[in-house]
Amino acid sequence: MADKKVTCDWFYRIRFFLRSTAYFACVRFVFALSPVVAQEYTPEHDTVKKMIADGINFLSSDKLERTRNGPGYDILMGYTAMKATEDHDHKLVKLALPGALKLAEELRKDKKGSSHSAEINYDASVAAMFFAAIDPDKYRTEIESIRDYLIANQRKSGSYGYSNELAGSLGDISQSQYVALAFWSIKQANIEVDPAVIEKLTVWIASAQQPNGNWVYQTPPRAEDIPTHQMSAAGLSAILVCADAIGVLRGAGGGLMEEEDEDEEIPRAFRRVVKEDKKGNANFVPKIVTRAGVKKKAENAKSWFDKNKYKRGGDWFYYLIYSQERYESFLEILSGKRSKSPDWYNSVVKVLLKNQAASGGWGVEGDSDPGGCETATCFSILFLLRNTQKSIGDIKTADSVGGYGLGNVAEVGFIDGKLVDKSQVSSIEDAIKLLEDSKDGSTEDKLLADRMALDTDPKKKREQLNRFARLLRSPDARARRVAAKLLGRGDDLDFAPDLIFALSEGEQDGQVLRIAENSLRILSRQLTTYILPREGLVTPSDRVKSERHWQNWYLTIRPDYIFIDQ
User: Is residue 89 part of a domain?
Assistant: First the structure.
């Protein structure tokens, strides 16, 4: 293998393969999994770590020869290496950087991307993910240039597609998935993206779902566009990624509405709505983007997957598992059920272990894949890493650790008499206990707030929100930050006055002030309303202005409410 030339392909063969229909005539869906998997794999398992390391070595080999040399290949490999090694000086990261910088500069000057290939959206999206992974502050200008290009090239339907338009197409599910992931990565890097743009994309992806719950390559479907597991995974992944980017999954309510009707909880005037001019696009139907609506789309997709079992056969398997890891990670948030070693992960790890070549790569020799060995190997590594789960937040649980394996002593505490590492707390009840008991200001809010999900039981959820409201008066500023963030996820307007209280002149922590206002923006559905300055110091005048604005808003929906200072 060492002396054999390895030929690869990626973007340019996607269109050819997905147009083909004969191959899918006898294919049925998702991995034929046994109900019980003996081996429990995780990204930290020694076997998995070796698979990842061997894959990175394969991509780094000087003997790896490629038939395509566009920037997307190098950038995808650099992104994968960065995620796997966290080494900014890794060979693949350094190889990718010049091409990514050049691409970002070209898109800054030419927002139509006219000098690039028809698949430019793929390259641009992966470049945004790459910059966000290595240093979003240092490469903010580049990320914003790519963001602006993607926004400028969104179609009227809300979708994305090839620059050399396919006849009759309103959009391409595969390209739209990549753009959705780019927007999500940019948002994760704390760089603003107009929520209306992502909402519009979300609505299109939702409207493109077929009646049976699947997605096809192009919308509206052409004669050759038969539903595939690859495109259905891409569609489900894309709608969940978009929903999270606009706060529907991890925003208000923490993503756990279970059997509740979101529309019953939110006053009609404050629901999130996407408006669109239907002129010239009779297929576009504006819809409300709600958690309940997204959940229904996900359930329909899962139903189709369950009825159509997938069987491997050289058919973009690696593209499929890359999308699967992403949608499975977000479905954990939507369902509130998380596992460190789920069956779907174990089953795919076993397949990858079997098909990894001696050289360390995938998609080579007898395991050829139409995406090519480079892409197959990158997608395999990102799957093994559980890359999306890492970006969302760990799923570790709090255990009694007996004093062993702890990090910084300042970050340990007791829960019901058990010594725990605060970085491993994922139970909201345990998090509240830590916050309520914190007297030394050592509670690390960033290790708690982003992974917490409020209870699905209305009574328990209400009690949790009451406790967070009390924590807004805690002497610990970090406890106040967590409380301000979680109150915004509760979708309960009764707690808006508590957040408005946090804007009072007694608050000295600028982060608490901005988090409180952000939660009020979520509760009010005024996503683009910023009263406090978004950067720099917050003056007493700023606080008063913000407090008055949100008081006036609240009085429009609760006119009988009396604020203490009025």
Answer: yes
Q: What is the pLDDT of residue 300?
A: 93
HSE toward the beta carbon, residue 28, CA cutoff 13 A: 5
Residue 564 lies in a domain: no
- Distance separating alpha carbons of residues 305 and 321, to the nearest angstrom: 14
Residues 124, 246 within the same domain:
yes
Beta carbons of 298 and 304 less than 8 angstroms apart:
no
pLDDT in tens, 98-108: 999 999 999 99
Task: Round to whole Å and give the CA distance between 68 and 7.
Answer: 9
Both 444 and 386 in a single domain? no
**CA–CA dist 245, 87 (Å, integer):** 27
From its phi and psi, is residue 213 left (phi > 0), alpha (psi between -120 and 50) or beta?
Answer: left
Phi and psi at 283, nearest 5°, equal: -85, -10
Asked whether residue 382 falls in the same domain as residue 434, the answer is no
Nearest to 226 by CA among 237, 235, 213, 217: 217
| Each residue's pLDDT tens digit, 45-57 | 999 999 999 999 9
Q: What are phi and psi of 119, to 5 degrees?
A: -95, 25
Domain count, the chain: 2
Task: Let me know whether 348 and 482 are in one domain.
Answer: no
Counting DSSP H helices and E strands in the chain, the numbers are 21, 4
Count of alpha carbons within 13 angstroms of residue 15, beta-carbon side: 13
Predicted TM-score (pTM) of the model is 0.62
> Is residue 335 one of the residues assigned to a domain?
yes
Comparing 150-154, 392-396, 496-500, which segment has the lowest mean pLDDT? 392-396
The pLDDT of 383-400, averaged and rounded, is 63
Domain limits for position 509: 428-557
What's the length of the chain? 566
Dist. CA 531–CA 553, nearest whole Å: 12
Same domain, 262 and 375: yes
Q: Which residues pair with 412 in a beta bridge?
A: 421
114 located within any domain: yes
